[in-house]
Amino acid sequence: MDLEAIQQALNHLPLGPVRFHRQTGSTNEDANHWAQAGAPDLALVTAEEQTQGRGRLERRWFTPPGAALALSLVLRPDQTPVDAGRPQALARLTALGALAVCSALEDISRGELQPEIKWPNDVLLERRKTAGILVEISWEGERFTSAVLGIGVNVSSQSVPPANALLFPATCVEAALGRSVERLELLGAVLERVLYWRARLNSDEFLQAWQEQLAFKGEWVQISRGDPSGPTMKNARLVGVRMDGGLELIDREGKLITLQTGEVSLRPVEK
Ligand code: BT5
Question: How confident is the model over 78-114, as pLDDT tens digits?
Fold first, then answer.
């Protein structure tokens, strides 16, 4: 990939300016700085390699050169209709990234791939983590001034970290699809779908798509504090997601539990 090829692949989309790095620390870090310096809506940072790629809770995100997508998009509030409070806005924008990746994977595979969203921010293929979303929002009081939507997608096998570095099993798009994938095509499809879903952020269609893509629906999952290896809080059957981003589950006693995006992890209960 290079800047010219990226711009050409994206020239049908109404994006802001694009920055491309062969290697950077973190595209989210870059986009946050750029947003503070006045980057317009839909300014895009993308990189071939990240040396300090980050996940939630100070975790690391692995992006070796030439094997993945690593991108961060600046979103400005006037074009991004999230009218809710802080946790809800974070949940909704995270879902925007996850839904965009799911739709893009369906588009480029012509329906062969069946991606799922592992609440709150992972995209799974064949029940393995293939993409992660990290949203970082800057607030002024109750109004957000900018959000950075960070998306990492494993495309070819070199992008998949060794199993001992992982909290949850991982795979890549090419392994799930059984053929090679053009990263520029996937990049264009993801961004096209970010635009599509952003225009529908508060719609029933958005909630329905989020609900439909949710992994482990109707299944028993183990809820842990922090990492999936952390202490188990309890097992419960997953019901669905609510408009405010909360996840609903029913425990063994039949009690409804709602989890908010935060320091919890889900993992299927082994039968
Ligand atoms: C995430 O965090 O899944 C969010 C990842 C966001 C990455 C993008 S890339 C572009 C932008 N720039 C950045 O610096 N970040 C964003 P979390 O749910 O906390 O998951 C992190 C965990 O996923 C790690 O602790 C590992 O166990 C695992 N992991 C790390 N790299 C992975 C990879 N390439 N594929 C699958 N799992 C990975």
Answer: 999 887 678 889 999 999 999 999 999 999 999 999 9
Q: Tokens 């921010």 sit at which residue?
A: 121
The residue type found at 82 is V
CA torsion sign for 11, 14, 17, 23 is negative
- Ligand 1 atom at shortest distance from the alpha carbon of 50: 14
Dihedral (Cα; 94, 95, 101, 105), 10-degree rounding: 160
- Given the DSSP bridges, would you call strands 18-24 and 44-50 parallel, antiparallel or unpaired? parallel
**Average per-residue pLDDT for the chain:** 94
CA distance 40 to 227: 35
271 versus 253: the higher-pLDDT residue is: 253
Q: For atom 30 of ligand 1, which residue has the closest CA? A: 61
Is residue 245 within 8 Å of 202, Cβ to Cβ?
no
pLDDT tens-digit readout, 135-190: 999 998 888 999 999 999 999 999 999 999 898 999 999 999 999 999 999 999 99
Residue whose tokens read 């012509």: 110
Ligand 1 atom nearest to 56, measured from its CA: 19
Give the residue, by CA position, lying nearest to ligand 1 atom 11. 150
Are 258 and 248 contacting, i.e. CB atoms less than 8 angstroms apart?
yes
> How far is residue 242's CA from residue 187's CA, in Å, rounded to a whole number?
29
The residues lining ligand 1, judged by C-beta closer than 6 Å to any ligand atom, are 26-28, 50, 53-57, 59-62, 70-72, 121-122, 129, 132-134, 150-152, 154, 159, 161, 166-167, 170
